[in-house]
Each structure stands twice: as C-alpha cells, then as structure tokens.
# Entry
Amino acid sequence: MTAMLFLASLFLLLGCDSQRAADDLYAAHRWSGETMGTYYRITIVEDIDAQDGIDLTLAKQRVEQQLDEIIASMSTYEVDSEISQFNRLQANQCLPVSQSLLDVVTLSFEINAKSLGAFNPLVAPLVERWGFGSSSADFVYPDENEIARLLARADMSALSIDDTAQSLCKSADIELDLSAIAKGYAVDRIADQLAALSATNYLVDVGGELIVAGHNPTGQAWRLAIEKPVFRLGEIEQLVGLTDVAIATSGDYRNFFEYQGKRYSHTIDVRTGYPVQHNLASVSVIADTAAEADAWATALTVLGEKHARQLVDEQGLAVYLIKRENSSANEPESTESEETVTAWYSEQFSPYILQ
# Structure
C-alpha cells in the first residue's frame, strides 16, 4: 500500500520542533520518527486560552507505545507478531489475539462486503508471489494454475472471529496481510491517545495516512496536498482543507516493478490474482477514521475508475480520483512530456477542495 499525501508546506520534521513560524498564531510542537517500514509525524497545536499545556513527554511515550503495540500485533515482518503467529497456524485452528487485531479484521470484513470483494486482507500469498513481499528471489512470471491455487487461499469464508474466546480462526490455509489498513488504524489509535491528553488541535501522519483535528498553527483548517501521480514526483494536484476527518491516498506510481517491458503495480486484485491493469493512478478518500479511508483507497484502486465511481455513488464516499489519459496502465511512461492526468471527485469531496 502506497500513500501519496503530504503537507502543503512541505516542512521536514526531524527530531522535535517547537518553534513558531512567522505566520503562526499558535504554538506548535512537531516530532517524527520511523515505524512500520515508513515514517510517522505528529503536530500538536496549543490553544491560547488553554490553562495547561500538553505534556509532550507523556504524549511521545504514548505514541511510541501505541505504535509498538500495533507492530507487535499486525506486522508480517515480525516473526512473533500476532498476525505472523496466525499465518503459521494450520487449518481449522484458532489463535487468541488482541482486541486491536479483532477490530481491524472486523472492519476488513465490512469493507470487503461493501466493496464487493475488492478489499481483501487475505492477499498475503499473492503479494509475496508477485514480488512485493519479503522474498528476495528473482521474479518468475506465475502461470495460470499457480494463480488459481493462490486465489483459493484468498477465500474470506475461511476466516472467522470467535468473539467468546476473542480469537481469530481459519478453516483453510490462509494468510492475513493488513498492510492496506494497519497504518490507518495506527493513526486512529494515536489520535485517541492525543485526545485523551486533552489535545484538540493536531495532525497525525503515518506513512501518508492522516487524521487532523481542530486547526493548524495559523488558526485555519489543515491544508494538505494530493500529489500529482506523474514522473516529476512532488507536484501538487489538489489542495484540500480538512478538520476533524481522516484522509488516505493510494497510488500506483511509486511501488511497482517492470518485467519484459510492462509495469506491474503493487496493488493486487484478489478477484483475479493479478496486479491491477487500468489507468486509475491515484485514489484519495476522506472518512471519519483513517482506517476506513485507508481500506477504501485500496478497494477503489482495485476496482478501476468506472466501477470505483459507481461504488462511490452507491456508498456516498468522499473521493478524489486521478487517472492517466495517454498511457496504458501496464506500460511505463517513457518521458515527462507524455504524462497527462485528469481528475474526478465526488459531491461529498467537494466541500474540502481549496481553489
């Protein structure tokens, strides 16, 4: 999962920064670090009339603790994590797990059903086979029979939750991969921790999945930018103004590989077993929680523009789509001049757009 959202101000967060910029009306505390194979960054803005400031030391401790807990639960790169233990289980077994993991799997079931199977957390074997997992072996193109065998391991009916025993269960040889929702969930949990410390104005960003509350240091809505999915990385496609919502973006233009002259996206369509092959280059979703935005961004990327727009209308989602106009989805662009993209956004997304 690749998220392509960044702050319009493009400031770099290294260590902790509590300095006030020239146009800031409110004191802001910023810090960042590494987690889940990517970065995280936090900005807390203090209110002028607040009687007590935020305990930054405690805030940092809780952020780190929350991230560590999620890694211990949902990281497939940690051999002792809950998800790794579950993936090693034989069929017809259950594993007692944390409430966090149960919550994420429950939401995954919900988005899977609403997206008509486009979001599927049982994608792990396919992700590994297409070269986007932990294996360093040379890529060999899979044949149809192998894809069919891997698709059989993505059957959601083989995954279940035993609420009484607080356990995850499998009835077949399946493996979970929550990379398309775990970062968003981490954002939500961190936001809960900050709110518990009486923070009312903040930004939480984990690998491009964000949630914002209140106002930014200038006293306005948080100004964020959706990146243009083109050869020249860092160009802005659209500015948005957000408060008290989350946003996530899925794109195909940073995480891919080329094989025999074709480009293969990291986003796997679990309905076919192959990487997506369409011109939808970027999907941004605004939702109440980052976990929902994260999962929906992946699901709509899988569907492609036509079916994504239909589902957006049916579900009433706030979505911004960007598609390529002049290149095949599985052919790499050869020059900057050939890149042309167009955008579409839903009625629910319109209020957030900054002209």
